Amino acid sequence: MTAKIGILTISDRASAGIYEDKSGPAISAFMAEVLTSPWEAVARVIADEQDLIEKTLIELADEEGCCLVCTTGGTGPARRDVTPEATEAVCTKMMPGFGELMRQESLKYVPTAILSRQTAGIRGGALIVNLPGKPASIRQCLVAVFPAIPYCIDLIEGPRLETDPAVCKAFRPG
Ligand SMILES: Nc1ncnc2c1ncn2[C@@H]1O[C@H](COP(=O)(O)OP(=O)(O)OP(=O)(O)O)[C@@H](O)[C@H]1O
Ligand SMILES: Nc1nc2c(c(=O)[nH]1)N[C@H]1C(S)=C(S)[C@@H](COP(=O)(O)O)O[C@H]1N2
Known about the structure:
Layout: E1 3-10, H1 12-15, H2 23-34, E2 39-46, H3 50-63, E3 68-72, H4 83-90, E4 93-94, H5 96-106, E5 120-123, E6 126-131, H6 135-145, H7 149-155
Parallel strand pairs: 1-2, 1-3, 3-6
Antiparallel strand pairs: 4-5, 5-6
The chain binds adenosine-5'-triphosphate (ATP) and the ligand Nc1nc2c(c(=O)[nH]1)N[C@H]1C(S)=C(S)[C@@H](COP(=O)(O)O)O[C@H]1N2.
Adenosine-5'-triphosphate (ATP) binds at residues 9, 11-14, 19, 21-23, 48, 72-73, 76, 78, 133-135.
């Protein structure tokens, strides 16, 4: 079964074409590197508008049937940063360990890692994971949390994700 992976770039400027989106493609490149089981990307680029973020997350999870949705951008303290609020609004369960681990890992690279309010949660058969907007942060964060993602997706009855252990070894207890 081909796993659908949602890649949601949330950036006023990338969505307006002021700069090229580099963070969505960085998520796609990481998935291509880590996943050895079949997958396909469902990518969107939108502005930092809470209603639009919620609507797009619902569409990726419920209509497209993505088992994993990675967002990038809008996790900071600025007035228009509302990705965590939108994520929480559409999820039935929050998974705070993802944000905790990603912030801890990001602190190895930038002291401003604590400014990201990135989180994760479950909506139906989808795990939604927030990543910061900076293109370089994508790999730094995903490498840290990816070992737990395939088992999390098993638990929500999604497709079995297999990884390249040279990039990231998936851990399945038992
Ligand atoms: N999707 C992206 N593609 C390329 N670069 C990005 C992207 N998102 C952010 N960046 C870079 O990271 C910097 C900080 O990102 P941040 O998310 O704080 O942007 P922002 O000030 O909220 O503006 P915007 O919502 O317009 O991206 C940006 O100035 C930009 O250089
Ligand atoms: N790994 C990593 N995490 C990071 C950063 C980064 O460059 N690398 N930038 C930080 C900064 S400066 C901010 S403001 C917050 C929020 O970024 P966002 O609003 O683009 O999501 O993420 C933080 N987390």
